[in-house]
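In this supplementary section we document a worked example of the pipeline. Step one takes a protein sequence of length 723 as its only input; no multiple sequence alignment statistics are reported here. Step two produces a three-dimensional model, which step three serialises into structure tokens for compact storage. The input and output of this example are shown verbatim.
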Amino acid sequence: MAWRLICDRGQQVWKYLKNENSTEIYFDKQNLNSADKVYRENAIQLNYKPLNIDESQYDKLKIPIFNEQLSSSAVKSTLNAINYYKSLQVEDGHWPGDYAGPMFLLPGAIITGYITKFDFTEEEKYQMIKYLFNHQLSDGGWGTHIESRSTMFGTVLNYISLRLLGISFNDQRIKNAYKFIQREGGAMYAPSWAKFWLCVLGVMPWEGVNSLFPELWLLPQWLPFHPSRYWCHCRMVYLPMSYIYGEKIVGEISPLIKQLRNELYIDKYEYIDFTKYRNSISPLDLYSPQTILLKMLNFFTNSYEHIYNRQLRNKASEFLISYIEAEDEHTNYIDIGPVNKFLNMLSVWHSKGRQSKQFELHLNRVNDYLWLSEDGMKIQGYNGSQLWDTVFSIQAILETGLAHLYTNSLNLAYYYLDISQVLEDVKDNIKYNRHISKGGWPFSTRDHGWPITDCTAEGIKTTLLLHEQIFNCPRRITSDRLEYAIHFILSTQNKDGGWASYELQRSGSWIEWLNPAEVFKDIMVDYSYVECTSACVQALLKFRLEIHFPNHRRKEIDIAIDRGIKFIKKNQRKDGSWYGSWAVCFTYGTWFAIEGLIAAGESTESNTIKKAVEFLLSKQNFDGGWGESYLSCVYKSYIDHKQSQVVNTAWAVLSLMSAKADSIAIRKGIQFIINKQCSNGDWNQQSISGVFNGNCMISYTNYRNIFPIWALGRFIKNNYIQQ
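The serialised model returned by step three reads:
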């Protein structure tokens, strides 16, 4: 019996094959970030062959030869690394990897399954239970993500999940979690997103949460606080939440639900006045406190619930469910992310019924979110990071100057670029507040369909690099398609000169005063980010240099680049760094900023670059590496990790090489990367490296291969030019 990953055009589905054998892979609790061993060991078994190149073949194979020891070692390390990494590539051209980490995602799937009576297989449930217990902490609780301390958000939802999966209250691990919840005052001190799921499940009355005021969606869209102006992830989560709240959907009150009512609170369920706890939250969870304005609005909307007009509420529900169905159709029932995936699924179950075609289509895409690692089965933060990992993988290999050795792998990756670009706008995009999509690249798959600025930018840049460097590149991505991609990029530049993630910023930052999610910051609108801006600037610069597009929208592109560079410079911090909003953290943001500035012609002698270099050099550790804690993201101040991290080190040395900085520091960083490499070419998985909304971390297991290869490749190339 064995698990196998089946991939088709980016879709990743884990299958349990009873007629195949496999060995049990154990989870090392010393490192809570999974090493993705289930997929990798399967792939290695099928595809990996030890490197069979020795130095006597270098000249024939056009591999750089160095007399200097570190450069020679870097060549061997790079060849070994790519040889390993290409064995992980699948037939459609992408590199699969673990994109999980948040501990509040799987409970949404389990609760939805329980209410709607769709069931995971016994093998899936076994792996889910394994995952949840593997990440239970010594105090009995669970964190908001796999590396955080225990929170009520993580603990309440995962306690419920294990009970719904059949774990007895008498299990000692459950008792430990029960004690944690009791110590913190009971489930009424969980944050609002957790309380929402409690209400749906029937273990808290709807009076326990603040009104979501479904009628808000019927107000004129020109209002600056209309939901159409929210960041798309926020918008698409509160859309089904508003429908579910408006309809007060509650699952069947089974004997187990009655037991949970007794387990989750200190006082008897029947005697609790839940209205008093609407705004209650444990200090363990509080990251973005409710503002006075939000509390005032909650008072009015909660009062409105006593007098609302049923006809108007029905009109709101009709609009909301039509919007939910549009999102389902636009994304082939994958939806923008796992939170709204299962909320949409619950909404469709209520509106259309368990036997409806729409619910069946939802069921067919549940497995898109499941991922299996040695720690168990989890829900990913997206339906994968397929496109994102693939464009970086291509660029890393091209940077080495050894692309001629890997044309088959690169052409396969090009195929994935081809099949993942979005080729048309969604139906009724204006009605449903969607930006244009045509020409963009998504984070994961074309089926998902939400294009992103930096993914599109990296798609453009990578396509042009492959057309330029790979002699037999099939060039299926035509000039017209690249021009549409450029149009998407130009259409998404904000007034401040920067680029946000998916869309233009649609309201001011003041709207964060209305942020109801106490555990996340900056979720209400799509802000400009240094990483997205740098990626877009680099793509426009690369496109502008192409002989095939000498005058295509040249003036607009020139202006956009200039505005983007000004945005990057404006957002440099006093210490010379840039905050990274999508990975950990200042080493990541600073890498993007330096790459964009240098590509645009910024002098390495400028104060901007000098300050950035000084910042990076000040953070290098004695062992030659850099190590940054995820807490840097949370507190927005550089916090050292207790150990140097290969990924942080790669970002730092890439930055320093672009800036033509201190060669001694670079060489020490490269030596650290080489020293940390495993004999098969891999690197051991270290701490979590991704982040969103400041307070939640997420895994990118392929980063441990991509960025060391990239750094080593640039080191080889630079030294070969100087030799």
